[in-house]
From TrEMBL:
Stored InterPro entries: DUF8151
Keyword Membrane: yes
Protein name: DUF8151 domain-containing protein
Membrane-spanning segments: 12-32, 47-65
Top-level taxon of origin: Archaea
Occurrences of domain DUF8151 (ranges): 1-78
Pfam families (UniProt xref): DUF8151
Alphabetical keyword list: Membrane, Transmembrane, Transmembrane helix
Length: 82
């Protein structure tokens, strides 16, 4: 069933927030992982390992946001538009 644009506006806004959030977390996770690698290369193994775990956690949250929230909402919006 085709809905009007005004009816889909909240869903589109939610889709935008999930997409930007997932992309932002991915960039932040990659930056933290790079920081961890540079820290380990400069000899601070403990802090580098901690940063590595934090970067992996951020990347995991980005993955979860993309797969659990963004992708189903994208399918829902596409079905509403078809």
């Amino acid at each position: 069933m085709r809905q009007s644009f005004v009816d889909l506006l909240p869903d589109l806004l939610e889709l935008l927030v999930f997409g930007i959030g997932s992309a932002g977390l991915s960039v932040a996770g990659a930056y933290i992982e790079r920081f961890a690698l540079l820290t380990v290369q400069h000899g601070d193994l403990g802090f580098g390992a901690w940063a590595l775990v934090m970067g992996a956690a951020v990347l995991y949250f980005a993955y979860l946001l993309g797969t659990d929230k963004f992708h189903p909402k994208l399918r829902e919006v596409r079905a509403a538009l078809a």
